[in-house]
Amino acid sequence: MRRTVTAVVVSGALLSLGATCEPTAAPSPTASATASAKAAGAEPSTTASTASPKVDKRTVTETEVIPYKTRRVKDPNLAKGTTKVRSRGRKGIKKLTYELTFTNGKRTRKKLIRQVVTRAPVTRIIAVGTRQSARCDPNYSPCVPIASDVDCAGGGGNGPAYVRGPVRVIDTDIYDLDNDGDGIGCDG
After folding, report:
1. Would residue 47 count as lying in a domain?
2. CA distances, 171 to each of 11, 110, 161, 184, 186 (Å)
3. What pTM was estimated for this model as a whole?
4. Which of 28, 162, 163, 172 is surrounded by the most beta carbons within 10 Å?
5. What is the pLDDT of residues 86-128, one digit of tens each?
6. Same domain, 148 and 119
7. In DSSP terms, which residues pair with 62 in a beta bridge?
């Protein structure tokens, strides 16, 4: 009876330490344990101590940067070939929560259990100019194109460029658009 109680107490102690017992796989006693048990007048014990691995779990939160995207949009108000930042980009932030599993002090598993975006990224927007730059003669307003000759549209000239009037002459009337000398060309 005493052996049974001792075996139950030892078995309970082992189980509380995390050991597992399988009743079908009883280990055989060692030769020295059998000899010492016979010398003491007792039967040899068949219980054994097996150490199970120590498993520890921890939760860790990490912060990760989310890069912003860049989008280019056409802008007919900007001269062709020029760019302008319409909206500055901003990086986002997300928090990642992992469950880490350690077996005997060594990390054996990393499982993502939660992902939260704390700040969404903002897309950077760049306007790209598409407007053809008009080459205007500085002697006239509004724009009169620079060409070998400019005539009033609907008039008797042979071009190669034409302008719709009225056009104000600012300095020198190099294309002879102001026939009456009043400072306004193509007005008649």
Report:
1. no
2. 112, 79, 20, 11, 16
3. 0.43
4. 163
5. 999 999 999 999 999 999 999 999 999 999 999 999 999 999 9
6. no
7. 96
- In 37-91, beta strands by DSSP E: 55-66, 70-79, 83-87
What is the spatial distance between Cα 80 and Cα 5, in angstroms, rounded to a whole number?
A: 95
Residues 6 or more apart whose CB falls under 8 angstroms from that of 148 comprise: 160
Q: Within 13 Å and on the Cβ side, how many CA atoms surround 69?
A: 3
Domain match, 70 and 20 both: no
The verdict on residue 50 lying in a domain is no
The string of pLDDT tens digits covering residues 134-147 is 688 888 888 888 88
For residue 8, is it within any domain?
yes
Which neighbouring-strand residues pair with 84? 127
Within this chain, do residues 82 and 28 fall inside the same structural domain, yes or no?
no
Q: Are both 103 and 146 inside the same structural domain?
A: no
Rounded CA-CA distance 161/155 in Å is: 12
- Which domain, by its residues, includes 181? 134-188
Nearest C-alpha neighbor of 129 from the set 184, 73, 175, 177: 73
92-103 and 70-79 beta bridge pairing: unpaired
Q: How far apart are CA 152 and CA 170, in angstroms?
A: 17
CB 108, CB 101: distance < 8 Å: yes
Backbone dihedral angles phi then psi of residue 61, each to the nearest 5 degrees: -115, 130
Q: Looking at the structure, do residues 122 and 61 belong to the same domain, yes or no?
A: yes
Phi and psi at 17, nearest 5°, equal -85, -5
